[in-house]
C-alpha cells in the first residue's frame, strides 16, 4: 500500500510503502523486522511499546 507523507508509528520516518493498522502507518522495513523478532529479543519490548501508541491515538 502506498502512503502519502505519513510517518511510521514505529521508526517515525516517512516511507513510501507499508501497512495501515487502525489508521496508523507501519513502514515495510519495520513490519518485516517486527514479524521476525523473537519474543525473547530485547527489540521485542520496543516494538510492543510502539504498537501501543496505536491504541493511545485519539483518532485510531
TrEMBL record:
Instruction: Return the Pfam families for the record.
Output: Gin
Name the chain's protein: Inhibitor of sigma-G Gin
Q: Which InterPro entries match?
A: Sigma-G_inhibitor_Gin
